[in-house]
Amino acid sequence: MSRPRRNIRSRIHALSIGIIPALIGLSAMLLGLITLPRARVHADSTPGFDSQVAPILQKNCLACHSSASKMGGFVLQNYAALMKGGAHGAVIVPGKADQSRMIQMLEGKVQPRMPFGADPLAAADIATLRAWIEGGALGPAPGEATKTLAPLAIPDIKPQVAVVSPVASVRFSPDGTMLAVGGYQEVRLIDSASGKPLATLTGHADYVRSIAFSPDGRMLAAAGGSPQRSGEIKVWDLSSRQLLKTMVGHKDCIYSVAWSPNGKLLASGSYDKMVKLWDVASGQETKNLQDHIDAVFAVAFSPDGKHLASASQDRSVKVWDIASGMRLYTLGDATDGLTSIAYSPSGKQIAAAGYDKTIYVWQIGDSDGRLLHSLIADEDTILALAWTPDGKTLITSSSDGSIRFRDAATLDPIRVIDHQPDWVEALSISPDGTRLAAGRFNGTLSLFDMKSFKELLGPWVAFDSRDMVLGIRDSGLGIRARVP
Ligand code: HEC
To answer: Which residue in 21, 87, 150, 254 has a CA-CA distance of 20 to 30 Å to 303?
Structure first.
């Protein structure tokens, strides 16, 4: 029932939409506009929806889960919406409280714990919700009148929390001496040998979701933008650490940016389903590549710079001709959205992976590609994928908590680094192939040795924690709150 959907990408996406809609939702509630359906008559011991369940949700959850605020894509202001679930599908399994994601989130078994940023619900309230689900999660009888409930109390949100940005992107510089790490509104440049911060590049609109270095290592492109508004690419000069230009385009934020091997072009893939090419020297958008029917999460140039490959939530990889901007062909084998893509260093193969936990490897040509291998490689969504510079190894990270190394020719396992402290959303291999950088949702970073698979450095927190007042600015709700 609950098909895993955009997971972490929508986590960051949905969250950074901000608190303003939540406040609108709250005022709507305070005006008493929200109606909740009445309960059906239940057996004595089963709590009624209207009398017992709705008041708990209304008091503790509606500020963030009204149809106006809709955090996590989840609306619970009426029975039908509650049963429909959120961005990840249904949250209630009638008759099975343990399997209901809403209960798992209330009990802290699935992160983030709900209600977000506030104290956990009272045990008695959780017990009531459990009993209602165990009793079949019944709603109002058809045709029964709905009743407008009294205004709501403002949920118990801690006004101030110390938060640290997740690592949304990480990239080794071409000479391997530096790491660029993208987080909320900033990029940290880090000495890759010592882990020491070198500089912070600030002023980005929202999360820096993807980073690309120019092939000569002189410039850095940091891409992101405001969800539901626009995409942004900032190009920085690395020796002076000056901002060279800000390129704005797309109707939603950018998830992936790539620099062409000749240094002249940037490519971006966005939640708005478009792929764009940009001329670095002029800062102008030169082509809009339109064919995906859902969000584009990853783009990569072929090593010869002639083609671009894009991977999308629409389950397809598309290969484009750079000179003409034409789509050459579509690789449509995946059964769910794709989050990541990589060309083999030879340029003869493409690997992609995503929500169906599977690595796909295609042999590609100028006019067509054919599936060489596919393997259910992880136990949950594959968040990132990288191909080693020698072409021999494919590395994936997954929301099952692992980083896995596989033989690129056979997909046979080589090694697993398990039990990551949080989802590894970003991977980068040093250009000499000796080290792997992994950036996590909890804001930490680690460097691993590619021979011994030992952790050389880390985990360390990449960004400073900041005190954010929830409800002001982008609220920091995109960021998992730490206990202050
Ligand atoms: C302060 C805001 C806030 C409050 C209050 C809150 N939530 Fe959430 N909720 C969120 C955010 C933000 C997400 C998205 C989290 C993510 O995906 O990382 C979310 C996601 C969820 C999801 C997952 C939806 C999906 O499919 O991904 C469930 C279930 C949920 N909340 C239930 C509740 C319940 C039940 C309550 C009340 C007891 C509650 N929440 C209170 C902010 C809140």
So the answer is: 254
